[in-house]
Amino acid sequence: MTTRGLRVELGGGVILHGVDLTVEAGEWVAIIGPNGAGKSTLLNAVTGLVPATGVASLFGRDVRRMRHRERARVVAMVVQSPVVPPGVTVLDYVLLGRTPYIPRFGRESAADLDVVREVLVRLELRDFADRVLPTLSGGELQRVFLARALAQEARLLLLDEPTSALDIGHQQEVLDLVDTLRRDRGLTVLTTMHDLSIAGAYADRVVLLAGGRVVASGTPPEVITESMIATHYQARVRVVDTEDGPLVVPIRTP
Ligand SMILES: Nc1ncnc2c1ncn2[C@@H]1O[C@H](COP(=O)(O)OP(=O)(O)OP(=O)(O)O)[C@@H](O)[C@H]1O
Asked: Start and end of every ABC transporter domain (predicted)?
């Protein structure tokens, strides 16, 4: 996945000022940055959901030249606050992830149902299959949104704050699952993340976005530093190097 000079204007303002970003096949890149930096906009521009100028290509193809169905087989995205349709069961919602494979006017195949069942098991959602979405807790819903994206079996997974509603156990479970899929199936992963320690623990590379510009890019220890965080988040933190990556600890103001 590559962007070159990606520029987005919304509501009369420039939100992304020409972003250059490459995510290699099989790589996990975390986009970090303060609120309003343009992280979600960048994911939306990569999938063609917001109008952008410059280059956005997925595995060598210009995203704006791809048909919707074709794009949905290549890239799956979980937005920050997906619409929760009333009256739809978990099973039917996750089955929507198979839409790009189901012929027009056709029905899902047994193979589609197998994929959905496997994803439900992997995300511990099997017991929820017949529940309607509005009855689920925030964390259960977040796993259902991810399940739908995984059911899409796309090569590129874009996740906007994928674990914001999850307890620490489910955070680990979901991120470990994404990491396993990356290792086993060569999935390419681009996530936005506010938890810098988690970003550093899972991502191969971290890209710091501020004011719609890439201000740093590198390995987690290169980017997640006390001075970088002070400058761009106006936060006082201590960064402790561990073998799992930098651990970011906020310092309470005296
Ligand atoms: N449709 C829009 N019209 C006007 N401004 C917009 C629009 N969409 C986003 N913005 C602005 O663009 C900026 C970047 O928003 P974006 O959601 O990409 O930031 P973010 O880095 O994901 O933030 P957060 O960490 O708070 O989720 C924000 O200032 C936001 O208000």
From this structure: 1-236
Q: What is the pLDDT of residue 227?
A: 96
State the pLDDT at residue 45: 95
10 lines ligand 1 (CB under 6 A): yes
User: Is the minimum distance from the CB of 35 to ligand 1 under 6 angstroms?
Assistant: yes
pLDDT digit string, tens, across residues 111-162:
999 999 999 999 999 999 999 999 999 889 999 999 999 999 999 999 999 8
Instruction: Kindly state the average pLDDT of the residues 202-221.
Output: 97
SS (H, E, C) the chain: CEEEEEEEEECCEEEEEEEEEECCCCCEEEEECCCCCCHHHHHHHHCCCCCCEEEEEECCEEHHHCCHHHHHHHEEEECCCCCCCCCCEHHHHHHHHHHHHCCCCCCCCHHHHHHHHHHHHHCCCHHHCCCEHHHCCHHHHHHHHHHHHHHCCCCEEEEECCCCCCCHHHHHHHHHHHHHHHHHHCCEEEEECCCHHHHHHHCCEEEEEECCEEEEEECHHHHCCHHHHHHHHCCCEEEEEECCEEEEEECCCC
Ligand 1 proximity of 232 Cβ (cutoff 6 Å): no
Ligand 1 atom closest to Cα of residue 15: 12
Q: Whose CA is nearest to atom 26 of ligand 1?
A: 35
Model ipTM value? 0.98
Give the residue whose CA is nearest to atom 7 of ligand 1: 10
